[in-house]
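Components:
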Amino acid sequence: MALKTLSAKAAAALDRELMSTGAFSLDQLMELAGLSVSQVGNVGGDGLVAARHLFHYGYQPAIYYPKRPKNELYQRLVKQCEDLEIPFVDDFPAALESTDHVVDAIFGFSFSGEVREPFPAVINAMAETKISVTSVDAPSSWDIHEGPPKSGVGSNFHPNVLISLTAPKPLVKHFKGRHFVGGRFVAPAIAKKYDFDVPKYEGIDQIVEITDNQVKI
Amino acid sequence: MALKTLSAKAAAALDRELMSTGAFSLDQLMELAGLSVSQVGNVGGDGLVAARHLFHYGYQPAIYYPKRPKNELYQRLVKQCEDLEIPFVDDFPAALESTDHVVDAIFGFSFSGEVREPFPAVINAMAETKISVTSVDAPSSWDIHEGPPKSGVGSNFHPNVLISLTAPKPLVKHFKGRHFVGGRFVAPAIAKKYDFDVPKYEGIDQIVEITDNQVKI
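Structure:
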């Protein structure tokens, strides 16, 4: 099975369509996306939902969340994690010392341009750590179409695992690790309209691993 | 492991707490509840969410939904099913002829009193069918505390499978089939406050089967 990729513009239009004519709420989409992320192993709001599910799976997540959007949904997602006593940490490099897995949910498919403070040090730490890193939709700092920056922050960041939500983005041609697709909620008609393939999920899984040469680039 | 039961009053208070101090939206709770239901095999809004997930699992669900609440969330859940071209059927007994499983999500834990039209014929059909029936939280027509009615509609309704959301309700002492608990999103502090046990879910499952003698009555 070959999977087509979805441009940043198309991915944004798809999100808008799912929340208008598709009648999904952002709460629903983020819940399903975060559940997919949690099933890969261990992103912004998707990261908070994933941390909550991971707690219930028996893991001991900690959250680094230095830039907090003020909107009500994000505030509720934070409260749901606080109620589980999931710790929020301020020092990312220090937190790396006491974990065995990182979920990189900093930037999503709408990222472009320069990495702003305080994230350069965080991306450098993820680039240099020996523990496994899973990025959601895009390794943070990567261009959605062009992949890793040619130089500077992120140029040496190659996460071990990538989970593409709904459909792979064009940057996957630069990615060499294990690749999953999640977000099992797209109607066939929508996939057809946006011209991407819904992968063949197994059983009740919310994710599916994509093996080499399955992505059309 | 023994599981305590949750009274109808406590279950309603828990729902209110999850949506106030717990910061969950109804969208999130219904998404997670419906996902649990879909994982049992195949309930109002929970039933709509379950039908959507079942479609994505590869099943061919059909929905009998004669009494439609006018609120916006239920309208969106219907639209999400319509977008998958899941058929809505008007004749429940006829629809039974062409399926191999029924999810009974008619009444929830807040039901009490008499079964009103058009549901007596539906409950009689579920009582008499030979195909497997899965009820959500309570077999429809059963009293949450007392179980099946002593006579009349529902007195002979014994579904094959029950999925209790969050915690079993007292009626489980009258239930003889396979019993699952779903709704893996309760914070330990909330479970303690409401004095029920969170069952030991395995792996990433959103449901867990409860074997005989595990429920405290």
